[in-house]
Design brief:
Blueprint: E1 3-12, E2 15-25, E3 30-34, H1 41-48, E4 56-61, E5 64-65, E6 76-79, H2 91-101, H3 106-113, H4 117-120, H5 136-149, E7 154-158, H6 166-179, E8 185-189, H7 193-199, E9 202-207, E10 210-216, H8 221-229
Parallel strand pairs: 3-8, 3-9, 6-7, 7-8
Antiparallel strand pairs: 1-2, 1-4, 4-5, 9-10
Helix pairs in contact: 2-3
The structure holds adenosine-5'-triphosphate.
Keywords: ATP-binding, Nucleotide-binding, Transport
InterPro entries: AAA+_ATPase (IPR003593), ABC_transporter-like_ATP-bd (IPR003439), ABC_Transporter_VariousFunc (IPR051782), P-loop_NTPase (IPR027417)
Protein name: ABC-2 type transport system ATP-binding protein
Length: about 230
C-alpha cells in the first residue's frame, strides 16, 4: 500500500468538501477519481500534495503523514494546474529546471523529450516562446510531460484530458498505459468516463467529499457509471 487516508475532513465555510473515513491505494494501481463539479477531487489531491491542510485526519504516503515530512516529494510527481508551470520560461528551460531537481543533466532532459515528439505534435519545442504564450491545452501538455519525466513512483494528474485535442487525448492514454507497471501508482481525476474507465484499474467516485463508489474496472463499469451520473 502506498497511500492510506484516515478520518480525513475538510470544510469550507461550514460546507464539507472532504469526508473520508478510510481509503487505501495499493502500489501499482492506476486509480481514476471521478465526481461532479465540486465533489472534492482537487481538494483531495491538494491535501495529498500538502498544498492545503485537512481540518482533521491524515494522509499517509508510504506510512508517513505528508503534512509532517518531505520524503514523499522524492517519489511523487504531479500536475494539477498552470500554477505548477513557470510562465516566464520557455518549455525547454522549464523541463531543464524540473530535470535539475531530479539530478538530470540538460542533455538527458532533451534526449528524454524525444519520446514525446508525437505527443507534442511539433507545437511545444523549438517555438521560441514563453510558457505564458501557449494555449491552455499546450500548457497542460508541458505540465503533464514534466510530471512524467520525473519517473515518479506516485503520479497525480488533475483532469489531464481537459483542454487536450482528441488526438492528444488518445496519445496521452497510450502514454499512461505504457507507464503502467508494478511500481508506478497513478491517480487521475477526470470527467471523461470513457477515458478514465479505459485507463484505470480502479475508479473511486466522490460526491460531496464522500466516497460513493469504489470499484475495480470491468466491462460493465462504464455503463454503471453512466447510469449513476444520468440519475
Ligand atoms: N479555497 C477555497 N475556499 C472555499 N471553498 C473552496 C475552496 N477550494 C475549494 N472550495 C470548494 O470545495 C468544493 C470542492 O472543490 P474541488 O475543487 O475540490 O472539487 P472538484 O471535484 O475538483 O470539482 P471540479 O470537477 O469542478 O474541478 C467546491 O464546492 C469548492 O467551491
Amino acid at each position: 500500500m502506498i497511500i492510506e487516508i484516515n478520518k480525513l475532513k475538510k470544510t469550507y465555510a461550514g460546507r464539507t468538501v472532504t469526508d473520508i473515513e478510510q481509503l487505501t491505494i495499493g502500489a501499482g494501481e492506476t486509480v481514476g477519481v471521478i465526481g461532479n463539479n465540486g465533489a472534492g477531487k482537487t481538494t483531495l489531491f491538494r491535501m495529498l500534495l500538502d498544498l492545503i491542510r485537512p481540518d482533521s485526519g491524515e494522509i499517509l504516503s508510504k506510512g508517513k503523514n505528508v503534512a509532517d515530512n518531505d520524503q514523499w516529494k522524492q517519489y511523487t510527481a504531479s500536475y494539477l494546474d498552470e500554477g505548477f508551470l513557470i510562465d516566464y520560461l520557455t518549455p525547454e528551460e522549464y523541463f531543464i529546471f524540473i530535470g535539475s531537481l531530479h539530478q538530470m543533466k540538460s542533455r538527458e532532459v532533451m534526449d528524454y523529450l524525444h519520446r514525446y515528439e508525437e505527443f507534442f505534435n511539433a507545437e511545444i519545442l523549438d517555438r521560441g516562446k514563453y510558457i505564458r504564450d501557449f494555449s491552455k491545452g499546450n500548457q497542460n501538455k508541458i505540465g503533464i510531460t514534466a510530471a512524467l519525466m520525473q519517473q515518479p513512483e506516485l503520479l497525480v494528474l488533475d483532469e489531464p484530458f481537459a483542454n487536450l485535442d482528441p488526438t492528444t487525448q488518445i496519445r496521452l492514454k497510450a502514454n499512461i498505459k505504457s507507464l503502467k507497471s508494478g511500481t508506478l501508482t497513478t491517480l487521475i481525476s477526470s470527467h471523461d468516463l470513457n477515458h478514465v474507465t479505459d485507463v484505470c484499474d480502479r475508479i473511486i467516485l466522490f460526491e460531496k467529499g464522500r466516497v460513493i463508489k469504489d470499484i475495480y474496472t470491468n466491462e460493465n463499469t462504464l455503463e454503471e457509471l453512466e447510469a449513476y451520473f444520468s440519475q
